[in-house]
Design goal:
The structure is a single chain. The chain is mainly alpha-helical and 177 residues long. The chain folds into two domains: 34 residues; 141 residues, no CATH class. The protein has nine helices and no strands. Helix 2 packs across helix 3 and helix 5 crosses helix 7. The longest helix has 32 residues. The chain is elongated.
């Protein structure tokens, strides 16, 4: 084998070695991008949905209980990452419906309109609300209640207010056992 053939084989081997990992890295990046944490738009939408689910009246609502902080912290953890696609689907659906009907995205509309759109999902009154969106919404109900009543170390239940609503029946020892 002469020097030119050797260099050609060496260069082709190096190029194949460089191209293959690049594809794998790109694939990993695309998978991570799909499950990357929610952006500001999704988190603000999540807060509106949570306040719709658990509103403030004579007792603190989801926002007062620190649901924003809970979502911001927990959507970065491995367990809650699986709920990010649901949140993104729900946000996209609400934005598209709001654009279609009112010409604005969901966050730009008034709270009355936001509640109407959320009512249509919750009640299932519109035929065009598919089951996946309704399932995402019901999953979000669970996440909201979990954030409102969880141990404060996870970001929600600010100042243990939710536990106080239950008459002090929750003891911290139960969580630290």
């Amino acid at each position: 084998m002469n020097r030119n053939t050797f260099i050609a084989i060496l260069l082709s081997g190096i190029s194949i070695w460089l191209v293959t990992p690049a594809r794998k890295v790109r694939s990993i990046y695309q998978r991570l991008k799909k499950t990357s944490g929610p952006g500001d738009h999704e988190l603000k939408t999540a807060a509106i949905i949570a306040e719709y689910i658990y509103p403030e009246d004579n007792m603190p609502g989801a926002l007062s209980l620190g649901i924003n902080n809970f979502f911001t912290i927990q959507f970065k953890t491995p367990y809650y990452r699986k709920y990010i696609p649901s949140l993104k689907r729900l946000t996209n659906y609400l934005d598209s419906e709001s654009e279609k009907i009112y010409g604005k995205n969901f966050l730009s509309t008034e709270s009355k309109i936001q509640h109407e759109l959320l009512d249509s999902i919750a009640s299932g009154e519109k035929d065009r609300v598919n089951t996946a969106i309704r399932k995402d919404f019901y999953t979000f109900i669970e996440l909201t209640l979990e954030g409102c009543f969880s141990d404060p170390m996870y970001g929600g239940n600010k100042n243990k207010q939710a536990w106080n609503l239950l008459g002090g029946t929750i003891r911290e020892e139960w969580f630290n056992a």
